[in-house]
Amino acid sequence: MADTIILPSDQDASGRSLGDEEIALVTQAIRSGTLTSTKGFAVKELEKRFAEMIGVEYAYACASGSAAIHVAVAAINPEPGDEIVTTAITDMGALTPIMYQGAIPVFADVDPATLNVTAETVDAALSDRTRAIVVTHLFGNPAQTKAIKALADKRGIPVIEDAAQAFMARESGSEIGSIGAIGCFSLQQGKHITCGEGGIVTTNDVALARRMRLFINKAWPYGEAGPDHEFIALNYRMTELQGAVALAQFDKLAGNVRIRRLNADRLTQALAGINGIATPQIAPDAEHVYWKYCLRIDPDALPGGPPALAAALKDENILSAPRYIQKPAFECAVIRDQRTFGNSRFPFSLARPEAVDYSRERFPGTYAGLRDVLVLPWNERYTNEHVDYLADAIRTHANSLTNTVLEVAE
Q1: Residue 135 sits in which domain range?
Q2: Helix 364-372 to helix 305-314 angle, to the nearest 10 degrees?
């Protein structure tokens, strides 16, 4: 290996595209004296431009990516005990909104190569109580949204796209976030663009749009005649300070995505042919946008699998993440032990036994996918030197682990 290189990190300025443009717009917002988005300029302009980019009629900013999922679920308006099919390989912030709205998350298995749900796994999880389907585009790699939507349309079930990690990704030429009934995006620290925390919801449906707009605003219909608080809802507004940063970041989004994709192509080529390592699997009609770059590690070829390679890479100052999340979401206490509202177990108290059956054999793809995945650090500030350093480190340590197997065999 060459001398150690410090890779840019999306947790500080080295790996973020923040700069004078954000400072200028934040300064403008502060000097205006108006920091609420109900009367300011930045959030409204962000919403307008984001809707135009995605190609939808409506986009609304909110406080976080988790808030975006909550807004989407609230717009669907499930009855208590209704089921929402989703994935167990996701952030808990994409699942707790389901429970807060009185619905039950029902987990579909995933393709172990992509860690995304498929039309087949979603179909197996549907029931006559299914109220919606959440399709998560993990790591920026589009899931089978159109196939899942075709399946859902036959049963009158809306599809919510969790596009938190998939800004500007596409499936068959369609923008991710515009295919389902609702799209949800995150502007959290490590995403393609950021304002620290923040979210955006998108839709073409006028009724869903109104309900989402109201839910963000305590169900108060600003600008309408005879306003009243129409239903139970929260204050999920984005502030003008967040909106100013996000608006400046928006101008950099296409460039950030382009760099991530170019560097990913370079890394994929550099890693070709390494025994025991598979690079991201992408559908022919999909455009991956690489929130993270993930490897699949064959533990039979590389002893110790992802944890062993991650430990070796750490010696090169490369902080990778085996498994992505340590366990499927249904193994977390909040779901496993149904720790929800007091001792009520609600909404799980209304669940069918099959909906809360988390037997390991029902999720072979989930467990295999988590066992084999290694998530590499990734951001738009990488240069060719950074990518080549990463590739060299992976090749060197993968070959070393492979040689260990050969030596033992001999």
Answers
A1: 13-249
A2: 30
* Tokens coding 346: 């609600």
Greatest Cα-to-Cα distance within the chain, rounded to the nearest angstrom: 82
Q: Does residue 257 belong to any structural domain of this protein? A: no
Query: Rounded CA gap, 102 and 111, in Å?
Result: 28
3-state secondary structure of 132: strand
Number of domains comprising the chain? 1
- Of 324, 315, 294, 330, the closest CA to residue 109 belongs to 330
List the CATH number of the domain containing 162.
Answer: 3.40.640.10
Q: At 182, which helix (H) or strand (E)?
A: strand 182-186
pLDDT band at residue 3 using 50, 70 and 90 as cut-offs: confident
Are 237 and 37 within 8 A, CB to CB? yes
Domain membership flag for residue 188:
yes
The contacts of residue 127 (CB under 8 Å, 6+ apart) are 83, 106, 352, 354, 355
E strand or H helix that includes residue 405: helix 384-409
Q: Is the peptide bond preceding residue 280 cis, with omega within 30 degrees of 0?
A: no
- Residue type at position 40: G
Q: Choosing from 48, 146, 154, 191, which is the catalytic residue?
A: 191
Q: Which residues contact 297 (CB under 8 A, 6 or more apart)?
A: 276, 277, 278, 305, 306, 309, 372, 373, 374
pTM score, whole prediction: 0.96
Distant-in-sequence, close-in-space partners of 38: CB < 8 Å, separation ≥ 6:
217, 222, 237
207 in any annotated domain: yes
Tens of pLDDT, residues 353-393: 999 999 999 999 999 999 999 999 999 999 999 999 999 99
Specify whether 191 is catalytic. yes
Rounded Cα gap, residues 245 and 240, in angstroms: 9
**Which pLDDT tens digit goes with each residue over 230-266?**
999 999 999 999 999 999 999 999 999 999 999 999 9
Residue 352 burial (C-beta neighbours within 10 Å; 0-12, 13-18, 19+):
middle
Domain assignment of residue 260, yes or no: no
Token representation of residue 271: 């890693």
What is the number of alpha carbons within 13 Å of residue 301 lying toward its C-beta?
13
φ and ψ at residue 108, rounded to 5 degrees: -90, 150
The whole-number pLDDT of residue 402 equals 84
What SS3 string covers 59-124? EEEECCHHHHHHHHHHHHCCCCCCEEEEECCCCHHHCHHHHHCCCEEEEECCCCCCCCCCHHHHHH
